[in-house]
Amino acid sequence: MFDLRAKPFNLDDEDIAWVESTFASMTKDEKIESLFFPCMRNYTEADIDELLDTMHPCGVMYRPCSAEEAVNATNIFRKKCKIPMLIAANLEKGGNGIVNEGTLIGAPLEIAATDNIENARRLGILCAREGKAVGANYAFAPIIDIDYNFRNPITNTRTFGSDPARVAAYGAAYTEECQKLGVCVSIKHFPGDGRDERDQHLVSSINDMSCEDWMATYGNNYKASIEKGALTVMVGHIMQPAWTKKINPDIKDEDIMPATLSPEMIGPDGLLRKYLGFNGVICTDATTMAGFTIPMDRSKSVPYSIACGADIFLFNKNMAEDLEYMKKGVEDGILTMERVDEAVMRVLALKAALKLYKQTEDLKVEDALKVLGCEEHKQWAKEVADQSVTLVKEEKGVLPLDPNKKRVLYCPIEAEQGVGYSVKAGVCDHVKQMLEAEGFEVTTFVPAPMFEGKTPRQDEVTKNYDYIIYLANMSTKSNQTTVRIEWQQPMGANCPHYVNSVPTIFISVENPYHLLDVPRVKTFINTYNSNDDVLEALMDKLMGRSEFKGKNPVDPFCGKWDTRL
């Protein structure tokens, strides 16, 4: 089995007694059911009853809802479940990852751009405080992927950047501070996203590093947080061929599996347990992703993921069917009860380490609202915004904006897909209003018909405008394979045609890599986030009321020579 007293659980006699007595009281079916970790979308008592009528999982994930919904659901679970539940959320940017009233302190890349590790500590503290206020005891964070590939559609602003040392330090800082407050972390996405340009929501992706390079970068990141006591690791649908072949030299290429289905990655003699020495809980990433469903038939992959070494099976395609598959896997010998018992014991040890068996009192909405969005947290968010906005390139004499030059041609670029990972729509309109409030006369660009020899006169633009300002609000998100600017028709009408005639400023509020598409723009700004604090800080810097303080946490030039011109 494993040592309950060892790191990261560090259980005392009382904790161990609870784990052992709880385990002894569980039936075979209860043990199998407790391998599951579904996602909540609705939070009424009827919805919770429907879930518990199907299975008694070890925990659930909350998607952002109201504080009242979260508190009420937590109280219902505490009342109805004989074994306390793990309650998780994507606490990556702040308390807004679990409830609408939560504070968004900053995207991880925004935190990294401050070049101040204290902000990573504050991120961990704030996520724990605000999550705990509504019942969360499990943060699906921090992300310790490394954003090596600017084309990756998922990592991007969700990471602490492309410097492995910074990612390791900031991830460990979040881990330490969050777990001090009784909320466990899940460092993710093992064995590391950010190398491939593909999305594991749509295909099993690949970490292509050699064993040596991986250990010096991703491996070091995991070790840094494991040493700080990280209680859980979330495993991605990501293949690591070099390590897989090192551990299993006879494996054929076609048999290499993503980590969620790979004993070489998560088994007792695998990379995570043996080579990194991790003794905590292993949780799969969402098993509804194509990166999990494509490599193996689900009837086998459901039990096989646990057989390989995972302790928690995250989310379901069909809850009742997945439970049938897990039970059938035990009957058919794909999954042994010995392995089930070990997984159950690890999860119980996690719950004991968090002292969940001592948390019996109901939460109160009014108490939660005193924590959510409190003045201290709001101030932290303002400080992060001020420290993070980054002036990537600057044409001399353009900034700060001259209030006596009022005529602005405004070119908004906003993704039609809407909201992803706490990104809001409507930012372009908001920034236009902010410019107008500063006294600028803002004209939104509208493309005119363009035919060879009949395009609008260039001197109409150069005579009529003092500045051209682009504002791009395009975020990466699941199931979106690329994030590139789609210029307006006809003939890229809103491309920066006049960059050499009118001072042009390009501002990206959500994606640091747009220079790929506007390499000749001479003044370029990244903000990494588009909440109100960031937009206010941006405006202060444009007007010269505040200096630009952010440092590039990634290569915004995308490795191209012309983007530096």
Please, could you describe this protein's structure?
- The protein is an alpha/beta fold.
- It has 2 domains: 13-371, Glycoside hydrolase, family 3, N-terminal domain (TIM Barrel); 389-564, 3-Layer(aba) Sandwich (Rossmann fold).
- 38% of the residues lie in helices and 12% in strands.
- The protein is built from 20 helices and 17 strands.
- The protein has helices at 13-25, 28-33, 45-54, 67-80, 108-113, 117-133, 164-180, 211-227, 241-247, 263-266, 271-275, 290-293, 298-308, 319-332, 337-353, 365-371, 375-388, 427-437, 458-464, 532-542; strands at residues 36-37, 39-40, 59-62, 86-89, 138-139, 184-190, 205-206, 232-235, 238-239, 281-284, 313-314, 390-393, 407-414, 441-444, 467-473, 504-508, 523-526.
- The strands form 4 sheets. It has a 7-stranded parallel beta sheet.
- α1 (13-25) packs across α15 (337-353), α13 (298-308) crosses α14 and α17 (375-388) packs across α20 (532-542).
- It is globular.
- The protein starts with 12 loop residues before the first helix and ends in a 23-residue tail after the last helix.
- The model has no long low-confidence stretch (mean pLDDT 95).
Distance between the termini: 60 Å
Indicate how many domains the architecture comprises: 2
What order do the strands of the largest sheet run in, or round the barrel if closed? 2-3-4-5-6-8-10
- As an assembly, this protein is single chain
- What's the alpha carbon Rg, rounded to whole Å? 25 Å
SS field, number of helical segments: 20
What share of residues is helical?
A: 25-40%
Task: Give the CATH H-level superfamily of the largest domain.
Answer: Glycoside hydrolase, family 3, N-terminal domain
CATH topology of the largest domain: TIM Barrel
The biggest beta sheet is recorded as: 7 strands, parallel
The CATH C-level name of the largest domain is Alpha Beta
In total, the number of strands is 17
Q: What's the overall average pLDDT, rounded?
A: 95
The CATH architecture designation of the largest domain is: Alpha-Beta Barrel
Percent in strands = 5-15%
Q: Which spans have pLDDT < 50 for at least 5 consecutive residues?
A: none
Shape: globular
Q: Which structural class do you get from the secondary structure elements?
A: alpha/beta
